[in-house]
Specification:
By secondary structure, this protein is of the alpha+beta class. Among the domains are: 1-51 and 93-237 and 252-289, no CATH class; 417-491, no CATH class. It contains 15 helices and 17 strands. It has a four-stranded mixed beta sheet with strand order 2-3-5-4, with helices on both faces. A hairpin with a 2-residue loop joins β7 and β8 (300-301). α6 (179-192) packs antiparallel against α7 and α8 (225-235) packs antiparallel against α9. The protein is elongated. Mean pLDDT is 81; it is low at 55-87 and 293-336.
């Protein structure tokens, strides 16, 4: 949340600064109107955009017998037991969010009261229908102003025909162009994002641009610029101002008078509009969330599904995966000399034991996945045999789709604050804490130091269906880590087999 607010505020600040320096004095008011509105929306949305970056990765060649997979990373064992709630009700972040919500609610209530006050006044007064608007005749002596399609004028001045045609044309332009909707929009955003100081400048700029647009409409109907300028100077002496409405204001009159006599430079305007489009792309890259396609966890990369292990022969040079090829798992192999080899009896023991403890599971799409489940002592025995294999025997095991590896002793590694904050985005990450799926907002109850381990995997193809997130994130808390540490240390060997689609490959054996 904090990262989002910082990015949104900085982005909105850059955009309003660009407007004030390069756009405000240009006579392209319709473009400026949409620039201001879209700048607000852009600054609110761009921190939510995720850009995936594909880093280049080189796979090291295999010169050893045993792949030591994924340093400091363990296979996640999902526990059926209920996990204790580690949330801390005294977390300062909770109080901060409560304070922000309270102030937002107060501002929204005040905003609603202002709207109701205008509507109540409209319902109390008599109304006169005119093309594209309605005149609301106010008994008091008020300065003419507009809200939505209603133009509020003094009843006495209207009946005595003291309301100048230029004034009505000005307010009618506000009504026709629905400038009140812009004001309502910025007021709502300011109520919800009151922590953003730049929204005050946006509101001033939007109001001023509305006056430019209305003045432009008046001068199309009344061509005498000097007379209209004198009328403005006379009218601005009236100080009454109604909130949420369009009205004359002394502080902007000077700018309005100058704008009326300014000439358009189309070439300069087109150049600035093109530059604004380029700026949008630059800011999108700067303030969006950068996600790397290969996610680092515990120092290495890991995937949720059955890993796709690429083994480079000792005689091969390092292999670089193609950019279009999804790399599910990158495995680092430790460099050491191959073993002397195992005997024929040991070879039969190795393959026979693995086959005995393999269960074949077939899904509807025709994929067969061999699931190997054996006691820890047998897994340790398979690892001993695997370590003794020579290079030819290792290649044979690889061709048979058999993987035997030993995890390193688990070590706690907490995420940094930036990484932890990014995990709170439900459109990017699906979160599991200690094996239990939780809403992303649940992370607000934790600190980065509460997490002992984390691993993530990108979802591909069918795995994305029915899910709003792109990555699965599994977190292990310190409490869970401590409770399972001894078991994980004593059970570090894993035996796995590669699945297939259709008929069983002949090289996979019986």
């Amino acid at each position: 949340m904090i990262s989002y607010l910082i990015k949104s505020i900085l982005c909105s600040g850059i955009l309003i600064l660009v407007y004030q320096l390069f756009l405000e004095r240009e006579k392209m008011h319709a473009f400026n109107r949409y620039y201001l509105l879209l700048s607000i929306a852009f600054s609110l949305l761009v921190p939510l955009i995720s850009i995936e970056i594909q880093p280049e990765t080189v796979i090291e060649p295999l010169i050893t017998t045993v792949p030591e997979m994924l340093e400091q990373t363990e296979l996640m064992v999902v526990s059926r037991e209920k996990i204790a709630d580690t949330s801390d009700p005294t977390n300062p972040i909770n109080y901060l969010m409560l304070l922000i919500s309270l102030i937002t609610m107060i501002l929204l209530i005040r905003f609603g009261k202002n709207i109701l006050a205008i509507l109540k006044l409209k319902n109390k007064c008599s109304r006169v229908r005119i093309p594209d608007a309605r005149l609301v005749l106010v008994p008091k002596d008020v300065v003419t102003y507009t809200f939505l399609k209603y133009i509020f004028v003094s009843e006495k001045s209207f009946k005595n025909q003291q309301v100048r045609g230029e004034i009505l044309a000005h307010e009618l332009a506000h009504a026709r162009q629905m400038h009140s909707l812009d004001i309502i929009f910025i007021e709502l955003v300011q109520a919800c994002m009151w922590i953003n100081p730049f929204l005050f400048f946006y509101k001033k700029a939007i109001r001023l641009n509305h006056e430019f647009l209305a003045d432009e409409a008046v001068l199309k109907e009344y061509s005498n610029v000097k007379n209209y300028q004198l009328l403005l100077l006379d009218t601005v002496l009236h100080k009454a101002q109604v909130s949420l409405t369009s009205s004359f204001n002394y502080s902007v009159t000077k700018k309005r008078l100058k704008m009326m006599t300014r000439f358009k430079n189309l070439n300069r305007q087109y150049a600035k509009q093109f530059a604004i489009a380029l700026l949008g792309f630059v800011l999108t890259f700067i303030f969006s969330d950068k996600i790397y396609a290969q996610i680092e966890t515990g120092g290495k990369l890991v995937a949720e599904a059955l890993p796709e292990i690429r083994i480079a022969r000792a005689t091969q040079s390092p292999v670089k995966p193609k950019a279009t090829e999804p790399v599910k798992t990158i495995v680092k192999f430790y460099k050491r000399n191959p073993g002397p080899g195992i005997s024929a009896a040991e070879t039969e023991e190795f393959y026979g034991t693995i086959e005995e403890y393999t269960t074949y599971v077939k899904n509807k799409k025709g994929r067969t996945d061999p699931i190997v489940r054996m006691p820890s002592k047998l897994e340790d025995r398979m690892y001993v045999l695997f370590k003794k294999m020579n290079l030819e025997q290792l290649e044979m095991a690889d061709d048979s789709g058999i993987m035997v590896f030993q995890m390193q002793i688990p070590v706690k590694k907490a995420p940094d604050a930036t990484m932890f904050e990014n995990w709170k985005k439900p459109s990017v990450f699906g979160v599991w804490i200690d094996g239990k799926k939780v809403p992303n907002i649940e992370l607000d109850k934790y600190k980065p130091t509460d997490i002992a381990e984390y691993w993530m995997s990108k979802l591909y193809g069918a795995a994305l269906k029915g899910r709003s997130y792109k990555y699965q994130l599994d977190l292990t808390t310190n409490d869970r880590f401590d409770k399972t540490y001894e078991r994980r240390v004593s059970d570090r060997v894993n035996v796995g087999r590669v699945g297939w689609v259709g008929e069983r490959p002949k090289k996979f054996g019986k």
